[in-house]
């Protein structure tokens, strides 16, 4: 599965795997894809350096990348404490009442909240970049907006390609004007932050909008058939995130959450502001229902909502409170029905792709492979 | 573009075109596709017979089909007057106030509302069927739910294939149990009634759910690349509705509406209950905004909402009141940027399909055609 972009990055298959787990990212690169490690959960630069050291040892020299969340020019220079002070008391009470109603205990004394998405804050993202540029990453992806010009320039100096996620053609055009190298067209059906245009429509629109820049199709892709569809739509590769969540290498820290993912159908997700303040697709839970309820206080804007709910999310995960337990995931969760190794997933993807190409060739009246 | 289903129906290309306009349906069949005439706007059986006579003369013996809207067992036997009586006065006032606020005049004296979707009513749909079975239609599609068992049996007796639209795998399974022959998997991005699962995810789920029944991919398809994607996802054909609305053969009765469609982007549609009482994708207008406003009375259930707004929609179209003027259409409206003949659209579709197959073959490392 070779495109100009996969050749440029030196990978066998134009399959990009986004994941917060180093073991998964490394396995994707070893399997012949391009592993992209999500950095948003790292709060201490030392933790990121430790995991990038590990990646260096476990990717066998294969290329990999890093994904940060850096809203250009937002809350610049603000400390976490300054941002925390903007959260209304009524919202804090709403969180406590929700947890109390579901009997969620506090974290054990001395145990810090492990799930803090302070990576949204620009200074945190910048300290991550200072670390990352010491490693031979081949691609830097930004999940929200275009990266600031100095970051794009710094990446270019080091030969690192810059990618950015886009939910509309207009959004993609702004990225192109900001000088980025690769656009990830993230459709409505994707897990995490997403707009309302579905991949079937979004991918070719973005391809046309930023031509000749390469586009990756993201959203709704978890099988080889879906990869073939994304490539037929003009993408130079595909970007998969959800599918790795139930691999044996993933570490969700909760068997109950893994079980919930394996049981969920494609209709069991929702685009909700509950987790970050911006619409992000995730499992629908009593937690998202509470925030999406017109009778509730509603979610705060980013980055306030993420800070507000960070400890609550840690507590829900720690105690595995089933009705509230969720995670960002796309509509393909309906096909995540068994735990497989990354290698098995990868083999299923490439085999399914070959089958889909056979099928389309046959329909087009051309001889098969 | 040949599949088992296209061979069974005797068409050159597995492209199914749904349209309310006989001239468009006939042109689709003449171009080598399968034209499906939407019957919901016909209130008098004589009108349908007249247009089916016309189809017979203008399809040159090529096969075509009919689409009805028959909710199985809903409001059985109720007359239009009985259903009208269920509409609250407050809702009627809301419609009048909305039209007054936008300065929409009444219809001229003696001019009947041309846009009445009484086809939702079962007795109207049944009288349409009585007419349709006198013609050599090859496929009968039902847009809502499975057709009643006696209708399925009657179609089978006449060698007419029965198709039904589905927005989820569970919905598709119920159709299969009801004995239908073809499932149209209608994704979130489609115009008209649609669920929340996008085509990229829905198509393969439905294919797996009803195997070996053939599935048509619908929603987000308006180019050859999108056709290739739909077929890669396992469909035996594609079902296109929106793309024909701006063809030269279409008769929208409003240049302003055609202009609005040509100018709209993929983000300018909304899933709203405004038109029928069930979520249907359409152009977002001041009319849909009014019904979707949490401060308003909200839409009534089907079929009440359709009866409630029928005359209002006729008035808006008659006087071309721009802010209120809309139509069901999918997210591909963003690529409908020029008026083309059905033949031109069809040629663009088949050429784009060949290009997409070339591209995917190349990526898969296979020799091109």
Automatic annotation (TrEMBL), chains A, B:
The keyword Plastid does not apply. It holds the Pfam family NMO. Keywords: Flavoprotein, FMN, Monooxygenase, Oxidoreductase. This is Monooxygenase. Signal peptide: none annotated. One of its GO terms (molecular function) is monooxygenase activity. SUPFAM superfamilies: Inosine monophosphate dehydrogenase (IMPDH).
């Amino acid at each position: 599965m070779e495109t100009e972009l996969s050749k440029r990055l030196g990978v066998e298959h134009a399959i990009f795997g986004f994941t917060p787990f180093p073991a998964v990212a490394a396995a994707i690169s070893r399997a012949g894809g391009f592993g992209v490690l999500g950095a948003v959960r790292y709060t201490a630069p030392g933790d990121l350096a430790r995991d990038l050291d590990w990646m260096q040892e476990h990717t066998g020299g294969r290329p990999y990348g890093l994904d940060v969340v850096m809203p250009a020019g937002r809350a610049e220079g603000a400390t976490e404490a300054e941002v925390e002070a903007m959260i209304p008391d009524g919202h804090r009470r709403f969180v406590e009442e929700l947890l109390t109603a579901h009997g969620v205990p506090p974290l054990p004394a001395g145990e810090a909240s492990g799930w803090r998405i302070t990576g949204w804050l620009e200074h945190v993202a910048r300290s991550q970049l200072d670390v990352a540029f010491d490693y031979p990453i081949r691609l830097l992806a930004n999940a929200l907006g275009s990266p600031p010009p100095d970051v794009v320039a710094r990446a270019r100096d080091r030969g690192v390609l810059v990618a950015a996620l886009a939910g509309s053609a207009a959004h993609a055009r702004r990225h192109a004007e900001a000088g980025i190298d690769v656009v990830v067209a993230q459709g409505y059906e994707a897990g995490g932050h997403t707009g309302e245009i579905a991949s079937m429509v979004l991918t070719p629109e973005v391809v046309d909008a930023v031509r000749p820049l390469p586009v990756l199709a993201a959203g709704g892709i978890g099988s080889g058939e879906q990869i073939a569809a994304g490539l037929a739509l003009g993408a130079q590769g595909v970007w998969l995130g959800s599918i790795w969540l139930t691999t044996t290498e993933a570490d969700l820290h909760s068997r109950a959450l893994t079980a919930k993912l394996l049981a969920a159908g494609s209709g069991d997700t929702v685009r909700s502001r509950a987790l970050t303040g911006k619409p992000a697709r995730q499992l629908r839970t009593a937690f998202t229902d509470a925030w999406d309820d017109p009778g509730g206080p509603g979610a705060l804007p980013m980055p306030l909502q993420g800070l507000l709910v960070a400890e609550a999310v840690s507590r829900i995960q720690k105690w595995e409170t089933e009705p509230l337990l969720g995670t960002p995931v796309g509509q393909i969760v309906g096909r995540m029905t068994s735990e497989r190794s990354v290698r098995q997933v990868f083999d299923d993807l490439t085999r399914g792709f070959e089958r889909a190409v056979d099928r389309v060739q046959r329909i087009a009246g051309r001889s098969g492979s």
